[in-house]
Structure formats: structure tokens, C-alpha cells
Target: Gene product 88 domain-containing protein
Amino acid sequence: MCAGVCYARHGTYRFPQVLAKHERNLARVLDDLPQWESDILAELAHERFRGGKALRVHDSGDYFSDAYLSAWLRIARAVPDVLFYSYTKEVSRFRRLVEPDPPANFRWVYSYGGREDHLLDPEHGDRVADVFPDEAAITSAGWHTNAATDLDAVLGPSPVGMTQNAQPHLRHRIGGRTFGEWQAAEHARGRSLPRRPPHR
Model:
């Protein structure tokens, strides 16, 4: 549901050169996943990734297939001195492929606002995040914020909140709700949006 107000569908992400690069990257993953994986490993061998660096997987999008997620798990295992972290709405996929044996350097947080919100169980250990209208709403809900560093989503206390982007028409569409609340309301109305592959 949050695809309808996703920051990656607006603003600079829609600039022709930026969009073309994301589309090329996605095509590369879809056309030749083994070569893409090899290229990522070669990139991560560069000295700038040495010494305990953190890499957020995706600035938008998600793990759109088992093969793609499995590739990232192999990459994480091959580069143990880099912390890989990400947000995901792919709850059932992570339950099957990641949770039984996650790489020690691979962290994730489940994001509300997806089709599988009903599978989330923060009371029994799921690390969760949601998008709030503002910092005051995060505090009022008793959640922790990732305002200081995005890494707090995977290393700090859970549940964690982040604020909506500042685009007025998107804020108006969501109103004073979190993405999770908005998704629940849309589900109740029988509405949903199609899944979308990641940009990289």
C-alpha cells in the first residue's frame, strides 16, 4: 500500500537519469543474477568497505524473489566485516529464508505498510518499524526514533519510527496516520496496490 506514497516514486527518483539508472540496475539483476552477485562482491572488496562499514541494502524497493534474497545472504556471508541491513515488507520470505539461519552481519527490520502486516508479531521478537507523521507522533506512541542514525532501525531499541517525507500531497493523502494504520484502513476497504521490484 505504501507504494502509493513511496518517496522513490516522486521527487528526484523520477528524474530521467536517476530512473534510467535504477531501471538498468534492475534489468541487470533480472538478466544475470550470478554476474550481478559477482560484481557486488568485487565492489565490496574495495578498501572503502573495510573496517566495520555498514551497507543499507536498497534505498527503495524490497527483496522481490527468493533467488534475489538468497544472493544477498551469500554476499553477506562472503563479506563478514560489513554490516548489511535493510527494511523489508517480505515477512513470509524472510521467515523461510533468513530467520532459520541469518548471517551474523545481516540485520533487518520489518516495515509496516505492506501486504503481510498481519504476520508481524513485535510482542514475540519481530523488530518492526513504521512511518509516522512527525517526531511528536513517534514519541506519543512510545516508539523509538531513528532520527539520529538510520542504523538505529536495526541496532537500537524496537519498535522504531521514522517520519514521513515532506511532500505535502503525500502527507495529505496519509493524514495523521502511520503507514501501518493507513495500510490497515485500505485493507479494510478492500484496496491494495501491486508489488514493485526494488531499485538499486
